[in-house]
């Protein structure tokens, strides 16, 4: 009972201390109790009314009233007795009496079912952590009680932030890893880096393994810092729960989370959308878990089965696990392995659900990834028996084959010759040519009422090692479709191509290991430096150690990316020209035997372009390069042979000189006089060459094509001098045919022949 030293003020001061300072109800025998698994045997009741706690009643675990008077005094609302009796209760709490706990009633009627809060003896009440983390309104009542009865101790509401937010806060912290992983995966997809890596030899499995292990490593470090800093800060949540259980729980969860990120990445193609959705999920999950899911967990009436169903959602299973850790700190001073068998402990079910789900989601994500890749033509399975072999040529459907033969017969002799070369190579099974296209076709299916589009038709092409083959053609001719088939982005509709003897329909993964690609867009990581890009792709091409370092240095130097610290700047800070040069460097690193370059010099200044040309010219010596360009100058300078694409088919093939002489057997003569003398000029040209052809006339300026066979340059000079003596010649010029003329001629002829058929 209350003694003289336990007057009212003394009690409240001490009660306050009890709630916010160091007083614990820890029994000296607490550790012994744990092994005997007495979960809630200790009783010491606190009775409260609606607004404030009315007092304490002490109970033994057999529900015998220890102090009848105490209970009676409060029940009757005797204010004087209240203080004294509470003091008595406080004495009792401080005693070594075991097996009691504190509970709060919010009714003035003392019924068992009205218990809102039980404070077990073993709980440390320091810093209010325990009270703050309690379920239900009992906690708030206890604070009201202390504050109301002892106003100067308002600071009792001092909040231990981590404990107060507890499961919600920690759930958010752990969930932060999800947007990070998702964003990174979608970033690689959106910027086509995944395809780029694949095109440089990184297969699906290695990509998955590397990415998965990377995220696992990052997540593990993050979780280690999370738990270690919590423990170092003195949070019992981390200190007292068994480290083994914490490790297993967080390890399984982060694996599940990473698998979900992989699955999510198959659904998004835009980083911003993925990030926004991920953060909505993170914060929404936290709130839903705290304010909805937790009430289901605590409810006695909500079916446990449905709680388990809800735990299939990883965010809820995470919350449940953290919640159980918090509960065990409050009720038992921490969770131990043997506690997993407690019927009320949801940890075991959560661990089982998460483990199973991890495996299912991992396989589902991989399956989805393969399906998505297949949709884009990347990632095909290999099949046997599809190397270049003579028989494969004859196994094709006859109708298609005859069709294409008819088509070829309408083509130029050089195109027919190329087809015959391909036929011969296929029959010989020769691998002397790095690239052999065999009746390659691409038909895009019709959409939105539009007919299907024949983008590439019946293409036969053989490119030997050491040749740079240029593909020219107007917009929409089918150049990109052709390259996309060759690099595995889309599947051929019919026909195939062999790269180093390997079929692009079935052996793309192997082809990638000896292939380099400089795509039309620069597919780079913004945060990696130029050097890091080359080191990465060099490793993919099996370069190691000093060979790798040397190859990277040489590559950086040759493309002017070495000096001035450029190589160690992030690619995101590069100019457009520097990015382009880095893309070319990537395509050439690791000695690929076949290289595709899609408009490599786009956006380069003349000096950089010349530098790039010399690099490509050097590189082509021991590899086959296919290059598309709109620059005739580039085509002429770099390419050993050129192919002109018009409307999806190859119209002519040959080296630049041949093509110029074939399509440009004439000089272009341009002269400007006054309009009055146009007829005289025309007569002069007719006199020089009766077959001269006027191609242009406007306000005194006329342009003629004069067959080279009919005129000598000296005659033209002579004729102009004579004309000058008769009338004023403002300007004149004589030019040989260039590739642009060839381009225009081929396109024009192709369209004419198309309109005839
Ligand atoms: N996915 C597609 N679906 C339907 N038609 C397509 C598709 N991709 C391309 N095409 C059509 O196929 C034809 C060839 O396109 P492609 O992009 O291969 O031409 P290109 O020669 O590379 O043109 P550019 O020089 O402008 O890049 C075009 O008519 C184009 O509209």
Describe this structure in words.
With 757 residues, the chain is an alpha+beta fold. Among the domains are: 8-159, no CATH class; 165-375, no CATH class; 665-736, Alpha-Beta Plaits (2-Layer Sandwich), CATH 3.30.70.100. The strands form 5 sheets. A 6-stranded mixed sheet has the order 10-11-12-7-13-14, sandwiched between helices. Strands 6-5-8-9 form a 4-stranded antiparallel sheet, with helices on both faces. The chain has a 4-stranded antiparallel sheet with strand order 16-17-15-18, covered by helices on one side. Bound molecules: adenosine-5'-triphosphate (ATP). Residues 444, 453, 455, 473, 475-481 line the site of adenosine-5'-triphosphate (ATP).
Topology (SSEs and partners):
Layout: H1 8-20, H2 30-36, E1 44-48, E2 53-58, H3 68-75, H4 79-94, E3 101-105, E4 115-120, H5 129-132, H6 138-149, H7 161-175, H8 177-190, H9 193-199, H10 204-232, H11 236-239, H12 243-265, H13 271-298, H14 304-310, H15 314-332, H16 347-375, H17 390-394, H18 398-409, H19 413-428, E5 433-444, E6 453-464, E7 468-472, H20 479-486, E8 494-499, E9 502-503, H21 508-512, E10 515-518, H22 530-540, H23 545-558, H24 576-588, E11 594-598, H25 606-619, E12 624-628, H26 632-638, E13 641-646, E14 649-654, H27 656-663, E15 666-673, H28 678-688, E16 693-698, E17 701-707, H29 713-726, E18 729-735, H30 739-756
Parallel strand pairs: 7-12, 7-13, 10-11, 11-12
Antiparallel strand pairs: 1-2, 3-4, 5-6, 5-8, 8-9, 13-14, 15-17, 15-18, 16-17
Helix pairs in contact: 3-4, 7-13, 7-15, 8-12, 8-13, 10-12, 12-16, 13-15, 15-16, 22-23, 27-30, 28-29
């Amino acid at each position: 009972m209350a003694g003289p030293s336990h007057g009212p003020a003394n009690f409240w001061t001490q009660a306050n201390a009890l709630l916010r300072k160091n007083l614990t109800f820890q029994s000296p025998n607490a550790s012994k109790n744990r092994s005997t698994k007495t979960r809630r045997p200790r009783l010491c009741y606190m009775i409260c009314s609606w607004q404030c706690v009315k007092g304490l009643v002490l109970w033994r675990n057999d529900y015998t009233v220890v102090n009848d008077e105490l209970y009676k005094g409060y029940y009757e609302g005797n204010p004087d007795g209240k203080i004294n009796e509470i003091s008595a209760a406080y004495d009792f709490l401080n005693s070594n009496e075991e097996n009691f706990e504190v509970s709060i009633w919010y009714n003035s009627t003392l019924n068992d079912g009205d218990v809102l809060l039980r404070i077990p003896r073993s709980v440390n009440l320091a810093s209010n952590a325990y009270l703050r983390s309690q379920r239900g309104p009992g906690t708030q009542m206890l604070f009201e009680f202390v504050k109301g009865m002892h106003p100067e101790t308002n600071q009792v509401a001092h909040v231990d932030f981590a404990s107060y937010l507890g499961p919600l806060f920690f759930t958010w912290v752990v969930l932060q890893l999800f947007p990070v992983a998702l964003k990174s995966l979608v970033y690689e997809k959106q910027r086509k880096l995944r395809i780029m890596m694949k095109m440089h030899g990184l297969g699906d499995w290695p990509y998955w393994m590397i990415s998965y292990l990377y995220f696992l490593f990052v997540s593990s470090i993050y979780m280690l810092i999370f738990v270690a800093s919590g423990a170092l800060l003195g949070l019992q949540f981390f200190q007292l729960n068994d480290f083994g259980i914490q490790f297993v729980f967080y390890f399984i969860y982060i694996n599940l989370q990473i698998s979900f990120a992989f699955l999510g990445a198959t659904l998004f193609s835009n980083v911003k959308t993925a990030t926004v959705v991920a953060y909505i999920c993170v914060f929404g999950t936290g709130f839903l878990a705290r304010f909805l899911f937790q009430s289901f967990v605590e409810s006695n009436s909500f079916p446990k089965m449905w709680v388990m169903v809800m735990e299939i959602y990883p965010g809820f299973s995470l919350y449940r696990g953290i919640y159980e850790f918090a509960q065990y700190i409050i009720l038992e001073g921490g969770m131990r392995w043997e506690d997993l068998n407690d019927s009320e402990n949801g940890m075991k079910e959560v661990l089982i659900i998460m483990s199973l789900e991890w495996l299912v989601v991992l396989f589902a994500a991989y399956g989805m990834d393969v399906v998505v890749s297949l949709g884009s033509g990347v990632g095909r399975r290999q099949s046997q028996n599809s190397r270049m072999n003579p028989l494969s040529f004859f196994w094709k459907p006859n109708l298609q084959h005859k069709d294409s033969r008819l088509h070829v017969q309408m083509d130029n002799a050089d195109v027919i010759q190329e087809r015959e070369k391909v036929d011969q190579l296929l029959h010989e099974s020769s691998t002397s040519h790095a690239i052999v296209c065999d009746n390659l076709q691409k038909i895009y299916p019709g959409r939105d009422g539009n007919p299907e589009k024949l983008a590439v038709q019946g293409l036969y092409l053989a490119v030997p090692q050491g040749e740079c083959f240029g593909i020219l053609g107007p917009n929409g001719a089918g150049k990109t479709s052709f390259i996309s088939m060759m690099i595995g982005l889309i599947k051929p509709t019919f026909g195939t191509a062999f790269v180093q003897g390997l079929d692009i329909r079935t052996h793309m993964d192997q082809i990638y290991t000896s292939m380099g690609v400089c795509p039309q867009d620069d597919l780079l990581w913004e945060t990696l430096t130029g050097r890091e890009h080359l080191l990465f792709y060099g490793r993919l091409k099996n370069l190691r150690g000093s060979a790798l370092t040397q190859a990277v240095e040489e590559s950086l130097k040759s493309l002017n990316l070495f000096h001035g610290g450029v190589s160690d700047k992030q690619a995101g800070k590069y100019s457009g020209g520097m990015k382009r040069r880095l893309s070319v460097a990537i395509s050439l690193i690791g000695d690929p035997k076949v290289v595709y370059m899609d408009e490599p010099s786009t956006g380069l200044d003349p000096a950089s372009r010349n530098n790039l040309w010399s690099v490509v010219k050097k590189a082509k010596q021991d590899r086959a390069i296919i290059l598309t360009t709109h620059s005739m100058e580039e085509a002429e300078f770099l390419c050993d042979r050129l192919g002109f694409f018009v409307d999806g088919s190859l119209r002519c093939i040959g080296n630049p000189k041949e093509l110029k002489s074939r399509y440009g057997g004439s000089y272009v003569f341009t002269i400007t006089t006054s309009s009055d003398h146009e007829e005289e000029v025309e007569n002069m040209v007719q006199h020089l060459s009766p077959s001269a052809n006027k191609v242009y006339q406007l306000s005194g300026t006329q342009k003629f094509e004069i067959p080279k066979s009919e005129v000598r340059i000296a005659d033209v000079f002579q004729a102009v001098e004579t004309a000058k003596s008769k009338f004023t010649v403002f300007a004149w010029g004589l030019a040989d045919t260039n590739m642009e003329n060839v381009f225009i001629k081929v396109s024009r002829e192709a369209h004419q022949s198309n309109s005839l058929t």
